[in-house]
Every structure is written in C-alpha cells, then in structure tokens.
C-alpha cells in the first residue's frame, strides 16, 4: 500500500502543521470514524498535542473532525508501540506468512480493550498505519 500524498492530503498536513507547529509525514482521512489520523515526526508528539491538549483541540475545531496523532518511528516495533499507546505492549515478534510480514503483539491483559477499541477501531487504525508505514500486512494480538 505505502504512503501516497495527493494535493488534498498535502494541504491538510500543511494546515495541521500550521495549527500545531508539529511536522507531519502522513495523514489518513478515516471517514467511517469521522477522524483524521496524523503521523507526526519523531519527537514532535508533545508539540502536536500542546499544553493541556490545546493544539490538537484547535486542529480538530479548525479541520472539523476529531484529530488523532501517532508518533512515527523508523523502527517498526517502536512504531507499533506508538500506535497502541496508551495501551502497554509487552512484546512484539514477527513472522512471515507466504511473503507477508505478520506482527504478533502481546498487550498487557488490562489494556486489551483499549488496544482493540470500540468495534475494533483502534486495532483497525494500527493495522492500517502498520501497512502504510512499514509494510506489515497483519497484526495478531496475543
């Protein structure tokens, strides 16, 4: 799948960066859940959120949808941990199934519901981002 940025997405990223001061490398418009998911540059999560959430709230109000942010990492394991945050990931192992990379993720028992989200929303977001950013075809929670 990979990251493909069209003019609309580039304009959205530019507005987000202007509103928050945080650099963003990707955005997904999740129409089903009425949200934008921004992948912010490594080390810029605090800037994206802002003091007491001021920046992310301003972005959501201006853009007209809930805005979620995930901090990018070149390391797929760290990226998956960032995607599941605040759920605590205790272990990640990878396997290959007919050429597809599969991540086997162990989540702390008390955080499983948070990792999955209502109707699987959080897990689906993580699967989508893992495929786009690191070519991980599937995530299995264990």
Tell me the CATH superfamily of the largest domain.
K homology (KH) domain
Count of domains:
2
Q: Tally of extended strands?
A: 6
Mean pLDDT: 95
Q: What general outline do the C-alpha atoms trace?
A: globular
CATH architecture of the largest domain, please?
2-Layer Sandwich
How many helices?
A: 6
The CATH topology of the largest domain is what? Answer: GMP Synthetase, Chain A, domain 3
Give the SSE string.
HEEHHEHEEHHE
Oligomer status: single chain
The percent range for helix content is 40-55%
Low-confidence stretches: none
Report on the biggest sheet: 3 strands, mixed
CATH class of the largest domain: Alpha Beta
Strands of the widest sheet, in order across it, are 1-2-3
Family: Belongs to the NusA family.
Subcellular location: Cytoplasm
GO biological process, one term: DNA-templated transcription termination
GO molecular function: RNA binding
